[in-house]
TrEMBL record:
PANTHER family: RHOMBOID PROTEASE (PTHR43731), SLR1461 PROTEIN (PTHR43731:SF9). Pfam families: Rhomboid. GO terms for cellular component: membrane. The chain crosses the membrane at residues 12-36, 56-78, 85-101, 107-126, 133-151, 157-176. This is Rhomboid family intramembrane serine protease. It comes from the Bacteria. It is a multi-pass membrane protein. It is found in: Membrane. Gene3D superfamilies: Rhomboid-like. GO terms for molecular function: serine-type endopeptidase activity. The keyword Amino-acid biosynthesis does not apply. Residues 45-177 form the Peptidase S54 rhomboid domain. Coiled coil: none annotated.
Amino acid sequence: MLRNKEVRIPLLLISIAWFLYALELSLNIQLFHLGIYPRERLGFIGIFLHPFIHGGFNHIFSNTISFGILSFALYYFIPKVADKILIQLTIYSGFMVWIFARPSFHVGASGIIYGIASFLFFIGLFQKNPRSLIVSLCVAVLYHGMLTGLVPNEKGISWESHLSGSIVGFFLAFFYRHVETTFSQKVHTDLQHDLYKEGYQPLENENIKYHYTEIDKKKTKQ
């Protein structure tokens, strides 16, 4: 069953991006200067604002689709730390761009999108849960084309944001590899149900023990 947070948070973030884009169009202004400009003090604030600023309709539209799908998956499969993942992806990947990227304004949610995809892919591998591996496989199949965005191959594309997001997503997946997912919850429930179905119950009381005595041993010989 869907929880409100799974839809509410992604929609809120997407709405902020579209509001700012509509503001640019209506006032005939550009907000790209609110993005990350590496190694400049004024560009540091872009670490927190860059995911909401986009360079045009095609940019924001493509990011909306990808971010909507991946962020929904993040909140659905890993609800306990989904908020932390988004915040940490934004800050850490943005900081890497500010430190290492080319001297230009870097805007858009692409780095976050790459980070979520990387996180969902690697956490399935780290957890080694058969069901979570399905998510890893789906991400690999649906977003394998994103690999080309990790290297400089097109002018005007911040491949540094893509690479930073992917690296941060990998380390976050390793850090949160023991977090409980909806898959692990379901596996636990199914296992418990199967045990009761077969007539077995877990011994939760250590005082309940079977004592094997000599009398029992003689009976078994008979």
